[in-house]
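TA notes. Do not distribute before section.
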Amino acid sequence: MNQTQHPVHGAGLGLKRAFIGSLVDQPSDAIDFLEIAPENWIGVGGEYGQQLRTLTERTPFICHGLSLSIGSPAPLDEAFLYKLKKFLNEHNIRCYSEHLSYCSDDGHLYDLMPIPFTEEAVHYVAERIKRVQDILERPIAMENVSYYAAPGKQMEEIDFLNAVLDEADCRLLLDVNNIYVNSVNHRYDAEAFLKALPGERIDYIHVAGHYVEEEDLLVDTHGADVIDPVWELLEKAYAEFGVIPTMLERDFNLPPLEQLINEVQAIRNRQQNWELKTNPQQVGAHS
């Protein structure tokens, strides 16, 4: 089992403006950390800005970016990166992660496009990640993404991902729902993919729901409850790598906050079950 120092611990939730006021007024013991997209909060003032400050002062936060576009043919937006650096430092953000994909060229494409799985793309993306890490003066975590086509493919997804992580010497945000979605859409073994990942690089994990378009076509929407096969894959990740901080993503069709907290508690319950199996003496510290 690979062990590493994680930036946060326990079970987390993606913060939405729809329920930020409720969390400010009534903190939940079930939520160990919160995640935001920095693009949605940089420069925000007024009531929302004050609420964010209140939460970042009392709760560990991580940031999951939307617009870095690490695989884009266009130059990195370094002006944005310096604004991001200031934001991360001002709010004591524990970790910054982004998608291993691209979403822009001359303008934004409003979708996450797959990077070709080629050696050339490995070198290109790794150099851009290194530049981002140099500017931010911190490591970043790249997320394995869902994709629906693989243009120009010369390598398997797992080999491309591992090559980028190794050459860039960066961290990994492990999205178990994306592994499950891709395993159905591209017909590969999800557990074998999971076991081939470098566990020592994992900062934290995402779990989410998805939409079933067809029996062999799943769409990563973050708009539904987490299903049993994804929960099972999360448990296999704990079995392989140890208990890793895990966050619930829910971006659309938001249910009441209480229901979201119940799903976060479901993450915590699984974490405690695995801790009980491996180290019973430590379970009480998280109960």
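Switch to the second chain here.
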Amino acid sequence: MSMDNMKHSERTIRIADNVLQKVAAISAKDVSGVAGLAEDCPVNIINLGGAISAEIFIFVKNDTRAAAVALRVQQAVKQCIQDMTGVTAVNVHVNICGIRE
């Protein structure tokens, strides 16, 4: 399990990838139009040495515009990771796995 390092003054905070995965998953599920996350591997985190790249796999609701939902997920995940952990998400790739009711 790799960890992101953040330096604040003279301290280093380490945040495990699985924590970042959970933060991303929670923020994505809260976006209007998201029906759920992929079950086998919903979120991948790539450590970029002080920043991260996230890849998230979602299902959208059948009465929504998939592109608009994906954009809202990108924004929500970036903001939530930054707000809750202080780690910068430089990329959030959203993969739409399908449509659910």
